[in-house]
Specification:
The protein is an alpha+beta fold and 90 residues long. The protein has one domain (2-81): 3-Layer(aba) Sandwich (Glutaredoxin). The chain contains two helices and four strands, in the order βαβββα. It has helices at 12-32, 70-81; strands at residues 2-9, 39-46, 58-60, 63-65. The chain has a four-stranded mixed β-sheet, covered by helices on one side. Helix 1 (12-32) links the parallel strand 1 and strand 2 (39-46). Helix 1 (12-32) crosses helix 2. The longest helix is centred in the first third of the chain and has 21 residues, at 12-32. The radius of gyration is 12 Å and the shape is elongated. 22% of the residues are buried.
Length: 90
């Protein structure tokens, strides 16, 4: 079974800049696409990704993605499901 790891920074800066909405977007995406039967999802929080000024930050399969929006996050997840690399901004 394939695995997608999503680590969402929940430090105060990233959370205030939109990671609360990003958490909801990930949960909704996987619920709507019934991913649990096909792909193992590991979603967790991280106190700080270390680049607060670029937040909100999300780490997908080990790659840091900054200035994340719910729409962009869903696009990245759709790409992963289609077999495309997540591609990130450092």
């Amino acid at each position: 079974m394939n695995k997608i790891s999503v680590i969402i920074c929940v430090g105060s800066s990233c959370f205030a800049r939109g990671n609360a909405r990003n958490i909801e977007a990930v949960e909704k995406f996987f619920r709507e696409h019934q991913i649990g039967d096909k792909i193992e999802l590991e979603m967790s929080g991280k106190l700080c990704a270390g680049c607060c000024g670029l937040g909100p930050n999300v780490i997908i399969n080990g790659e840091l993605h900054s200035q994340m929006t719910p729409g962009r996050l869903v696009e990245l997840l759709q790409g992963l499901l289609a077999g495309l690399p997540a591609g990130g901004t450092q």
